[in-house]
Amino acid sequence: GTLFLDEIGDISLATQVKLLRVLQTHEMVRLGATRPIPVKARIIAATNRDLESALRAGSFREDLYYRINVFPIVLPPLRERRDDIPELVNHFLKKHGGAKAAIDPDALAALMRYHWPGNVRELENVVERAVIMTGGGVITRADLPPHIVYISEPEATGDIPTEGLSLEQMERKLIIRALEKASGNKTEAARLLGVTRRRLYSMMERLGVHPP
After folding, report:
1. What is the pTM of this model?
2. pLDDT over 70 at 161, yes or no
3. Interaxial angle between packed helices 186-193 and 197-207, expressed in degrees from 0 to 180 and rounded to the nearest 10
């Protein structure tokens, strides 16, 4: 059969050793057993990490990397393939809302402009949330999380300076504003931004935001 190993870049070095042994010997020993049993499977591994950087940092084994990197497929992040967004949105609308669920052009345009740090999973979560809020009807911009509408608004950015524009800086400022408005209450700040408390913590850590 096929064994799919998701987020393989996150496994510990100890687990990497065990996995490498299975891939090399095509055998495994069940917990509590003493005899090895043969393993014949196609291995598909996925990760959102840069494994070559992990190799240099010593957090991923070189021998395991070359064992699994036989036929690599690089999937660009969603922000680099925005033309896929309309079809993905329609797919998630049918999945979570059925035949009556739809999205108006302004809301779709906002989704097209957003930079999607969470990629397809984040897009599906946004669509599912909007479907719940509309009861399976037509999704408008008002049904989208505020941080997506704010960051995707052309008037929110003004003219793009010649030195470029950092979307991460905008996202960081928005989180700080939400925390200030919520007097440092992360649960309330997460509600204002339309994200979960756990997602807010992740965003704060990634962007180096410290609560007031």
Report:
1. 0.58
2. no
3. 90
